[in-house]
Amino acid sequence: MPAPKHGTRTSPDRAASQPSRPPRPFALWREVLTAYAAPALTAGAAGVVTGQRDLAVAACTSIAGTSAVVAFLVGTWLRHGGQPRRWTLTTPRGVLTAGLVITAVGAAALLGWFTAQWLPAHTPVPTTPWLERLRVDLPVSAALATTIVTLRWRSTTTA
User: Fold this and answer.
1) In angstroms, how far is the first alpha carbon of the chain from the final one?
2) CA dist., res. 141 & res. 35, Å (int)
3) How far apart (Å, rounded) are the C-alpha atoms in residues 10 and 98?
4) Which tens digits make up the pLDDT trace of 124-154?
């Protein structure tokens, strides 16, 4: 059997000979769209497959909506008007991501608690299962969106 030619799919040095492509530039609109579509499709499909109507509805509302809003806020903050803050570029990627995730999850958890607990107790809004879902949906969505946007942003920037 003859040896494969250089540059064919079976050549072991093919990957080494290919120039590495730079990452696509960070486009906030694309990150927000992805942050909405990905959880809406995955959680929505899971809700349909398992017969959980409330999950299918929440997938397109509280889950995907929170992800899109958080992606927009975190992406806007990271871009800082086109001039990123110096410390966001020099801080190790994992530390930056963890710090932003903790902040976003804390804010989302407070908002979820406020909406599910405080609002029905102090206003005519009744307690519903949908409001109770926010205690989990908001922080989980915030954690995922913040992690993905921060890592994606850092992969497109240089110190």
Assistant:
1) 49
2) 9
3) 40
4) 888 888 888 999 999 999 999 999 999 999 9
